[in-house]
Amino acid sequence: MSSAVFSTSAAQSRPFVFDNEPAAEVCPQPTGAELFGEARPPQRAVSAISSGAFKDAKLAGITPASRLAVRPAPEMASSGIAEVDALTGGLPRGALTEICGTASSGRTTILLAALAAATRRGEFCAVVDASDTLDPQPVAAAGIDLDRLLWVRCGENSYDAKRSEKRYVQRSEKCPENNSERRLEQLMRVTDLLLESGGFGMIALDLGDIPPQSARRIPLATWFRFRRAVEHTPTVLLAIEQRSIAGSCSSLLIKLGTLQLNISKLSPSDSRPSPTHTNLLTEVNITAELVRSRMERKPVHSAEITFAGKTAWAG
User: Fold this and answer.
1) Which of 18, 179, 256, 309 has its CA 20 to 30 A from that of 29?
2) CATH code for 76-254?
3) For every residue of 210-244, which 3-state class applies, written as one string?
4) The model's pTM
């Protein structure tokens, strides 16, 4: 071993001796391969990793976006109205459909027509009536099979034992906002149970008489949960509202409006003459606008149709 002598002015009598060869580490740190008993990879493997072969192996199970198959279109069910089917292709199964509009805009007309078409196909349906306003007589007159219909009434009637008359008292008269919140809570719980149980061809949520400011209190996460629960099922989830509240969670959004009211004079009867100032509503012309449709990847253009809804007494 060769050595070299160096001296400094501060310590000329004490020469320092340094080896030319580098000294070994006092405590060398073992590599990961040495810790786990793995052999060091050969030089060819190292060069292969550096050339990108390892990256190609990790990406081998990933399909490029250019090779992804087009998402299949959902199965469509008839709405019971030919004009609506021509506009939208029907109501999508396994998806949420919103039908919104003001009072007397045809919301109930489409609801009853869709339920009648579903029961004629032999499907079981459920209606979650948030305001307890559904009338059984128009339901039966629309051709709906009542044996295949589950009617869930979200009423708030409560018995007040303090009163001697023992009658039912509406809580909505005391606090309308709290009453709407309770009805919405019932609607969300019932909808979760219906979607989990399965077996329904159509589940309709009737929020038509709930004020929009109250209906918007339903969290967006709840609508997302409904959408995920109905996916990959043959169920049509239908929401009847005054305004759209589900946002991007709905696959189809239809906006309704009243175009014209057809009114006729009452014909006088032989036994009971009718007053001359009395009019009879016989038909309502309704416009339907397709606002949103996620059936295709490309955005759709807004389109409108007009259809008529006749009253029961008009034949």
Assistant:
1) 18
2) 3.40.50.300
3) CCHHHHCCCCHHHHHHHHHHHCCCCCEEEEEECCC
4) 0.67
